[in-house]
Amino acid sequence: MKKRAEIKEYSPKxxxxxxxxxxxxxxxxxxxxxxHPDAPVWFNRLIDDLQFRAxxxxxxxxxxxxxxxxxxxxxxxxRWIRRYQQMDFLxxxxxxxxxxxxxARDRNTITPLVAGQAHLLPFADxxxxxxxxxxxxxxxxxxxQAQGLGEMLRVLKPGGRLILMELIRGQGTHIFxxxxxxxxxxxxxxxxxxxxxxxxxxxxxxxxxxxxxQTANGRMRARDSNVTPxxxxxxxxxxxxAYWGIRHATAAIAAWTEPAVERMLPGSLATHGxxxxxx
Length: 279
Prior knowledge:
- There is one protein chain.
- About 45% of the residues lie in helices and about 15% in strands.
- The chain folds into two domains: about 15-200 and about 265-279, Rossmann fold, CATH 3.40.50; about 205-260.
- The chain is α/β, with parallel strands linked by helices.
- A seven-stranded mixed beta sheet has the order 3-2-1-4-5-7-6, with helices on both faces.
- The chain has helices at about 10-25, 40-60, 80-85, 100-105, 140-155, 180-190, 205-225, 230-265, and strands at about 70-75, 90-95, 115, 130-135, 155-165, 195-200, 270-279.
- It starts with 11 loop residues before the first helix and ends with a strand.
- Helix 1 packs across helix 4 (about 100-105), helix 2 (about 40-60) runs parallel beside helix 8 (about 230-265) and helix 7 (about 205-225) packs antiparallel against helix 8 (about 230-265).
- Helix 5 links the parallel strand 4 (about 130-135) and strand 5 (about 155-165).
């Protein structure tokens, strides 16, 4: 009997470095490695636009002064540090994946970029006015999430602001979401005080489509188990083109209605929560 191969333990650093290398040339803006690697460029631009709008709202609540020292944890390919520079902050980026930092350096010639993990930040205590974490801790195994959040509070100055944008629903092999109240509880346990939070990325029509397609895919796999590999690949390619063609319309409509949906529905029904804390 052959010995069963051991399942490799998930390592955020190795996983995201692989993503960075595989998708670094997918789009000029560097969105693919940090958003949805397998998605079309237009979709990642749409998601980035929604996240940028949410970040501007969070920064309005945070009320940071011009020239504030701003650490972006899990800076990825550098999309936020570029924007923080444009907003007259003094950003520093930190990321565990060398591939991400290489792409970020290609696009940022001034901003300090440092190698480091969220749960072991290579900075002194109380040296930043603000810290942001955009969909980063959600990818850290739950056993290390509290340590990561504690590190972000540690490097913040007293009175500094912490902005989190993290998953509050979903599932996957490398995503570990928490309920909104759990994110708040974790940060408060390390000395943070919640100023405000709101839901981000409802995209109701788009979520309905993806849920329907996932159910249909499960039924198709069960039905077509005897299809030859060649025909299966052709079928998969046709389905993918049709899927993204339809989703181009549903995502655009959902994004257009997003401001109204945000006003009507509780934040807990969104995909992410955006939390603004003060140390």
